[in-house]
Amino acid sequence: MTALFALATSLLWGLADFGGGLLTRRVPALTVVVVSQCIAAAVLGIVVVATGGWSEAGSRLWFAVAAGAVGPVAMLSFYKALALGPMGVISPLGSLGVAVPVGVGLLVGERPGLLQSAGVLVAVAGVVLAGGPQLRGAPVQRQAVILTLLAAFGFGAVMALIAEASTTVTGLFLALFVQRITNIAVGGTALYVSVRRGGRALPAPEEGGAGAVRAALPALAFVGLADVAANGTYALAAQHGPVTVAAVLASLYPVVTALAARGVLGERMRGVQAAGAGLALLGTLLLATG
Q: What does the pLDDT look like over 86-143, one tens digit per residue?
């Protein structure tokens, strides 16, 4: 069950990242984050009411609040780092956040077997290579590296925090709802500050303006709901088995994003990316059989 839920997490996060990446070509990144999370929060609110999730309120929800506060900061740091580039370096570094939940698992006493340990190393190497690391070319700005490592730590922290936010399924719905509300508060504040400083909340008029956002609502809903579902399946994966295994398998999403880009946009995978995808698959098999 751990492997199944964790691999579902990778699939959902990979597709959400792919969809979000496409949307940010037309809509400001902060607007994508806020609108997609608002849609997700509305759906989760209905689910919480329907399942009686409010009865699960307790001190564990502070983990969800923390995850909701960290998530937008990590995402914005990652977007800023991608803008500074080069993407061939930034993207693989961003996947190193897996070290956070894996480290937490080791600290609480988890000790993976020999095959699982080998699977962790092989899968992490595959994830990094799947991002297509740029091994030569333009130098990387120190600010880009710092922002990327901050984003990676944030992504890993969200994984670790949401796994602790609930011990029941109905409680998980409530935790995900609280996480989304916090995401909206933090992201909305950042969007407000950006607009006050001259940034755009909507595409330029010649690019469609508010109409472009309305036309993108189905895609925004998909991104927000896929992200919510990924957080939920990861929490279930971490509850059903070793966090060290769940975290690594859930971090295979760059492979999914790369494959989606190839299938939908016709982007060709570089040799290093294909090798990374193969290593990620090998690592998955080792983790599953270990």
A: 555 566 666 677 778 877 777 877 777 777 677 777 777 776 676 566 555 555 567 7
DSSP state, residue 204: -
Most distant CA atoms of the chain, gap in Å? 58
Measure the CA–CA gap between 85 and 193, rounded to whole angstroms: 24
Tokens of 22: 């496409």
d(CA 169, CA 162): 13
Structure tokens at 88: 């061939």
Q: Which residue has the tokens 């995401």?
A: 183
At residue 125, what is the residue type?
A: A
DSSP letter, residue 117: H
Angle between helices 271-289 and 243-250 (to 10 degrees): 150
Give the C-alpha separation, 5 to 17, whole Å. 18
